[in-house]
Amino acid sequence: MVGIRGREVDRVNRGRLGPKGLFGWQANNSADRLTTPLLRRDGQLQPVDWNVALDAFTQRAHGLLDRRGPGAIGVYTSGQMFLEEYYTLALITMGGFGTNHLDGNTRLCTATAAQSLKETFGADGQPSGYADVDLCDALFLVGHNVAATQTVLWSRMLDRLEGADRPVLVVVDPRRTPAAERADVHLAVRPGTNVALLNAIVHELMAHGWVKEDDVRALSVGYDDLESLVEQYTPERAASICDVDAADVRRAAEIIGGSERLLCTALQGVYQSNQATAAACQLNNIALLRGMIGRPGGGVLQMNGQPTAQNSRECGCAGDLPAFRNWQHQPHVDELAALWNVEPSRIPHWGPHSHAMEIFRYAEEGSIELLWITATNPAVSLPELHRIRSILTKPDLFVVVQDAFLTETAALADLVLPGALWGEKTGTFTNADRTVHLSEKAVEPPAGARTDFDIFLDVAARMGFTDKDGAPLVKWTTPEECFDGWRDCTRGRPCDYTGLSYAKLRGGSGIQWPCNDAAPHGTERLYSEGRFHTTIDDAEDYGHDPATGAAWTEQDYRALGADGRAILKAADYLPAPEAPNEEFPLLLTTGRALHQFHTRTKTARVPQLNAAAPDVWVELSPIDAERLGISDGDMVRVESRRGHLDAAAHVNGTRPGTVFVPFHYGYWDQADPTDHDRAANELTMTVWDPVSKQPTFKSGAVRVARLASGEVMR
Ligand SMILES: Nc1nc2c(c(=O)[nH]1)N[C@H]1C(S)=C(S)[C@@H](COP(=O)(O)OP(=O)(O)OC[C@H]3O[C@@H](n4cnc5c(=O)[nH]c(N)nc54)[C@H](O)[C@@H]3O)O[C@H]1N2
Ligand SMILES: Nc1nc2c(c(=O)[nH]1)N[C@H]1C(S)=C(S)[C@@H](COP(=O)(O)OP(=O)(O)OC[C@H]3O[C@@H](n4cnc5c(=O)[nH]c(N)nc54)[C@H](O)[C@@H]3O)O[C@H]1N2
Ligand SMILES: [Mo]
């Protein structure tokens, strides 16, 4: 590879790239790519050929299926492979192994986005699109540091913020992010209090008649319950819970209530924070109450993070059956069984599929004995890392890791399979606004590495997976054939791909699903006709109690009677699980920085990006820094009940009482698991949202102490 450029004709990026897009490709070329499988023998990972490697894997799997059954196998995948890879993996995991222990790292990422869309609209799928950024008159960003994490989208917002007819901007974030700096109202809430704030905003909308009540009542169910729930959330009450000014809450509500084209966005400051799904649903409610769903320039963007998080969700790798089918609805299971030509009983649907945190718990308890990890690095990205390390190194757990690099996780595995990266393989991916793109192979993978797609086909063949007539279970051999199979799978479902083909996707730009006979050029906005996916036969999920997470049955859903109308759901504010005290007086929050991506397996290998942010730091407010005798640049230790890390202090615009640590930095030496005192997840807690099951990475109490002056350390 020699460079990457954007395509001006593309509807999403219009030719623009961010720093990671411009420079990140260099990681593909790096000299330390994995090029041979590695098998642990006598305690050491040793190079073996592909035959030996895949035989070791499939013999182990066969043995477990015979001795223990499908429940002994767990699969933990990604938001970074291609659609065709997820669909194939879902097929072989459900239809082949027959296990329900299949989830993606999307559980850490966009499980709440998906869940809130299911709770409110009946199915996953973004109501609005990026074109609405061009048309809105107010932007409401909640827990979304878009300038650092979605630079191309931020450029599009800047076009508006710096242009004629500037939209009003309201930002909710405990930190003074670049968007917060430009905001008309910045609500620097105490982490974990989104629900209290959003409840107060809904309270204000209702109290001032800024709600299109008759329309909303016609379009949705749950209005009266919502009204009584928010009754006590005055701006003063929210202000005291969130530690902001009541006048600012009022000003924000006034902007939201007065806007004609209001676009709301949410990301990890909602999804990884306390009461994630309840807060995300309340944001959907605001869009509904203001009549914004389906309206150009209005609506809600429940944002995604990873490039193919949407596909992981669509294809059945993230807790649902493929193409947003509902495991509780037998006709959906039967449809899938017919497509795959397997008995319906083969497809796990006796309960919800296990979520990632459960899969690791089962591995810890020993009921899962083989864990197949593809394109994710849980030894850095899961909460409470000392626990994750102890699970991954359990002698009786066989860990298979499929990655391009010897990551912290791969270094602990029993079998490592070298994967090809994007640019080295062909496949499709779908972004947060439902735009499907084709990514063509440009170069060969390094000799010895194989695409995930090929590895999946090989595993399926070696396992001897067949359909109910004895023919091979997997009917395709190329990504394009798989895509055609996927199109059939989506027929009549919300994510209808039947109008798409590789040929059509070569037309220059991506295309938004649903794309079918009725909408051959794709669909810009969902629900413009006011019908939602909330009938018994259509719903992807029958929903949950937003406060407790108790799952609703088909009976409950019938009783709710949404039947094509949207569902207004909300919950009372509940304090986050770990409050600061004398011993641990500060609130921790974690997240991202502009120049690094996740666990840095790629960005650490890119000179420009690595140099821009080579090592971990901790952001402190000037007030806390002064009290602790810490100056900018000093080395400090951050400690929680679970672990510690050492980092340089950055004294900046974080709200007092809160510290922020970027979670990008794993071990100093990736191959040395004893060398770990700089990962944010040494500090975080094993807790998750009751509804979406997304881990609450933005939580926990810590203390900070000065270790040495920055001068000394340098
Ligand atoms: N440069 C870069 N870009 C990325 C990534 C990356 O690693 N690096 N990762 C990609 C992925 S997978 C994802 S998911 C996205 C994530 O993108 P973002 O969600 O924008 O990033 P985060 O830094 O995780 O969190 C966003 C903000 O939430 C705020 N926050 C923390 N707690 C709370 C709270 O209780 N309430 C509110 N309202 N805000 C809170 C934090 O201060 C932070 O500024 O980024 C994507 N883009
Ligand atoms: N404390 C804290 N923890 C967090 C978060 C946070 O904000 N705070 N954010 C969470 C979120 S939103 C996310 S998305 C996760 C991300 O967490 P991870 O998924 O663990 O992070 P990555 O570093 O992106 O790991 C992806 C791995 O896949 C490999 N890879 C990339 N492409 C391919 C491919 O095509 N095939 C194969 N086989 N391998 C490939 C890369 O080399 C890399 O090692 O972290 C979560 N953890
Ligand atoms: Mo993410």
Account of the 3D structure:
- This protein has 714 residues and is of the alpha/beta class.
- The protein contains 28 helices and 23 strands.
- Helix 5 (111-121) crosses helix 16 (276-289).
- The longest helix is centred in the N-terminal third of the chain and has 18 residues, at 50-67.
- The two termini are 36 Å apart.
- One ligand MGD binds at residues 79-81, 105, 108-109, 268, 272, 305-306, 374-378, 381, 402-405, 407, 419, 421-422, 452, 590-591, 598-599, 601, 663, 680-681, 684, 697.
Spatial arrangement of strands, main beta sheet = 2-1-13-12-11-3-4
Gap from first CA to last CA = 36 Å
What ligands does this structure carry?
A: ligand MGD, molybdenum atom
Level of helix content? 25-40%
Rg result: 24 Å
Structural class: alpha/beta
Share of residues in strands: 5-15%
Shape: globular
Which residue ranges are poorly predicted, with pLDDT under 50 across at least 5 consecutive positions? Answer: none
Determine the mean pLDDT.
97
Number of helices: 28
Count of individual beta strands: 23
Largest sheet: 7 strands, mixed
Structure at a glance:
With 714 residues, this protein is of the alpha/beta class.
